[in-house]
Amino acid sequence: MLELTERDAPFMELHHLLKRSMAGQFSVALVSGPLSSGKTTLLHTFAEYAESRGAAVLSANASRAEQSMFLGVLEQIFQACETCAPCIEQAIVSWMKETSDGLMPDRAAPGGRCSTMSLSRVVCEALRDLARSRPVVILVDDAQFADDASLQCLLHLARRLHSARVLLVLSEAEFLAPIPRDVRSELLRSPGCSRVAVELLTEAGVAATIAGELLPSTAGHLAGPIHRMSGGNPLLVKALIDDFQSKPDLISGLPAAGSAHRRAVLDLLHRSDSRLVQETAQGIAILGQQATLPLLGRFLGQDLSLLAQAVDVLRSTGLVEGCRFRHGAARSAVLSSMSGGERKKLHTQAAHLLHEAGEAASVVARHILASGEQQPWCAATLRIAAEQALAEGRSSAAVRYLRCAHRACGDPAERAGLASMLISAEWRSNPAGAVERYLPELVEAVGAGVLTGDDAVRTFHYLLWDGQLDQALETLRDIRRNGEAATGHPDGLPELDSAALWLPYFFPGLADEVMGSPAQPPHPSSPVASSLWAPQHQTVAMLEAVLREGHLEAAVQKAEQILLTTHLDDKTLLPVTSALMTMVFGDRLDVAASWCDSLLGATTVEHTPMWRALFMTLKAAVHLRRGELAESAQVTQAALALVAPESWGVVIGLPFSLLIQTATAMGHYEKAATYLTMKMPPAASQTLFGVAYLNARGHYYLAASQFKAALRDFNSVGETLARWRFDSPAVFSWRTSAAHAHLCLGETEQAVALLKEQQSLLGPDQHEAWGLTLRAWAATKDARAAVTPLKEAAKRSQHVGNRLGLAQALVGLSHAYKALGEHDHAEVTAARALKLANQCGAGPLKAMLIPMTGGAERPGAGPAAAPETSTVTVLSAAEKRVAVLAGQGHTNRQIAEKLYVTVSTVEQHMTRIYRKLSVKQRSDLGPALQSAIPAE
After folding, report:
1. What is the spatial order of strands in the sheet that 27-33 belongs to?
2. Mean pLDDT over all residues of the chain?
3. What are residue 28's DSSP bridge partners?
4. Who wins on pLDDT, 927 or 664?
5. DSSP secondary structure letter of residue 618
6. Which of 758, 761, 757, 848 is nearest to 810 (CA)?
7. Residue 33 in 3-state DSSP?
8. How far is the CA of 43 from the CAs of 213, 269, 862, in angstroms?
9. CA–CA separation, 481 vs 497, rounded Å?
10. Number of C-beta neighbours around residue 715 at 10 A
């Protein structure tokens, strides 16, 4: 016997009716329920039960395909009955001969129905004879599709067999072309007739079904989701269980609709055998969340009363709730069952209908995309939808809308405006691709005067990002010419004020050429311009404070205000990233890291990867300032993996500089050299990003003992910053770096001059720059004089959280203590430095410290107290000169000739140098000497 779930009540009703019929009272059961609710399974189970009780079971399955077959159901009922089949068959043949045409009579014609009376009497007598020997159960499944003549015969039985041991069971699908009303009504009025309802499964019933198919332990967490997805329809429940068995979601442990569910949905619609029901399902699938009964009526062109019946059929099956599919997978199954041409036609129809109904542009746009419709109104609708999508952070959707609108648009000015929106939307994920696809069109449109205002200025910005400086200047001239033609004077374009406002800070190398020399921040040219300036003025004031004035406290306050009050979007990305960089320059590393994490949480890999990559790079800059070298390298590499280097434009100098600096500080010199071979856009040299790259390269040369090359780079940094009037030590302490190179070359006087100049520029709140400067000062003094500046340098580094700077200060201080004979103090300090060097991953520093400590980190040796003297401090002036030349690869004889001393003197110096620097061979001199050089 088939297993039934939650079918005890209907089965028991049939059982009671069987008992009544076996007692000699003719009975009728009308089994009603939704499509695929388990009526057929119930009838099969009951048939097995009735046979086990000794009843003769005669059954038939009606179908719409055979509904025109005259007496087809009656023939099915009796064909398996050896006792009745011959006489019934003979009666049918005889009756057919008696009829005039042998065709199925018209149900509406009374004569037609009367013509079955003779046949019905034969059937009735045959059943009486059969019922005398054993009870009889007649089962007709899907009786709504039975032919009329068979129904009339069955109805005659209900009228005549009052005392026969016969049970007639008819099943019908609710809401779906039920048994003819007059037949159904007369059956229900029969004394022995009962209605048997079959409902969809409850959640408990779904759980029981799952427990029977899977492990009982899984039923608890699967029952709820499967019931919500299926509505309790047994066919859908079983399909979802099959999908879960074939491909379980091991991560969530929840069911996922698959191929079995798709087949079940389509099978369910096919079983309805109703074109209207199937079209209604398609309409609901196409209209989606917007589907309502009135809208469906207009969409399908159907009478609302008929349509309501079709919706009731779908609702009764558990497929839909209201006028929407319970689960997106069911909607997808219906859509996939349609041909591409059918879907396109219906989406076109939906787009027009929803547009006329005043639905939201985003709703209409989805149908325009799916249909490929290119009517004049489509471009405007798609543009509005794209603007909304961008505001919501759905860049991918915005790009799809804009591409469709751009293809369909024939007006040059509108098309150029759409291209401007497209480049902004696509830039978020793929700047290189966006520039390649749309920038030439935008440049041409600006030149032709069809793209003006903010869109034209945005084109200028993208040219700068991409490093196309000549074209940027030409486009700027076009913008000015167009603005003059529109307003009557050359300074009458408010959007140009905005461009001029940013240019001196982000493209200072170009600003003088654009704005005159020296470039000065502009003033708003009109009240409109003043309104455009309002959100930007604070950012410009912040940059002025940090880059030119060196007022870090004021700059940091402005940066925090910007971050607190600014909503991130295309127009505010520049102020937000500038504020973050200001936090880094202002030594607010913890605050900067927190803001980076917050902004990374507000961006996604899918929609805004370029934004995300920029925030990751700024987070890497924080890691570097803290001395977290491995973390800085890892985050920078992840940013470049997220967005390829060719998409970074001139900004690529920033991540490249971080990679070079971290690799150098970690002692990965070959890797740093590889980074230096990566292509830099020539235009980057006109930006601070290019200066950052040049500064990083100088530090690599310094670590590689290429002191003159390092000095050239540092001096070039200084000259460039002086030309741009950005000579704030908080941003680039190039003088300390150059001083270190001079010291390595034995040029102490030049180093001292640079450090004095640096000290005169330092503000009290520039802690990182002070730490660098004090460590460099210590390198010019003897051991006793070096202790005080090194302790102060350590305090400054510890104040800003720079563990690498603190370790470098401790190294120098350990050397100073050792030179002063304070060996215990020197060893404790070196142990502290070694612990920090290990934490930072600073390979060269660690290699130098291991011999000084025996490789041991003393218990409790934490980042604390007192700090570095440069290694160079413990050497005499003569020893420094010898050490520098030896580190550059000169032989003892060559050194003697250069310094006008004997070879024996050089050898004596070299012995002392090896001992003081704790090195064993000449090749170790370069790293040992550069360890005292303050790292940027």
Report:
1. 56-61, 136-141, 166-173, 27-33, 193-197
2. 85
3. 168, 193
4. 664
5. H
6. 848
7. strand
8. 22, 22, 82
9. 15
10. 17
Q: Which residues of 76-104 are buried (b: 16+ CB within 10 A; e: fewer)?
A: bbbeebeebbebbeebbeebeeeeeeeeb
Q: Percentage of the chain surpassing pLDDT 70?
A: 87
Q: Which residues pair with 544 in a beta bridge?
A: none
Neighbours of 416 (CB within 10 A): 25
* Closest listed residue to residue 690, CA positions, set 467, 516, 935, 457: 467
- pLDDT tens per residue, range 433-446: 999 999 999 999 99
Range scoring the smallest mean pLDDT among 42-51, 242-251, 338-347, 867-876: 867-876
User: Could you give the CA distance from residue 203 to residue 206 in angstroms, rounded to a whole number?
Assistant: 5
Q: How far apart are CA 9 and CA 367, in angstroms?
A: 47
Q: How far is CA 906 from CA 480, 879, 899, in A?
A: 68, 9, 9
Question: In a 3-state reduction of DSSP, which class is residue 59?
Answer: strand
Supply the DSSP symbol for 544: I
CB neighbours of residue 447 within 10 Å: 17
Distance from C-alpha of 182 to C-alpha of 179, rounded to nearest angstrom:
8
- Go through the chain and tell me how many residues it has: 936
Q: Rounded to whole angstroms, how far apart are CA atoms 19 and 25?
A: 9
Q: What does DSSP say about strands 136-141 and 166-173: parallel, antiparallel, or unpaired?
A: parallel
- Report whether 736 contacts 758 (CB < 8 A): yes
Task: Identify the H or E element spanning 109.
Answer: none
Dihedral sign computed on CA atoms, order 873, 874, 877, 881: negative
Phi-psi region of 169 (alpha: psi -120 to 50; beta: other; left: phi over 0): beta
Q: Report residue 487 as tokens.
A: 């307003």
Report d(CA 596, CA 122) in Å as an integer.
Answer: 90
Whether the link from the prior residue into 518 is cis, omega within 30° of 0, is yes
Nearest to 145, CA basis, from 271, 299, 288? 271
- C-alpha torsion sign, points 354, 359, 363, 366: positive
CB distance 759 to 912 below 8 Å: no
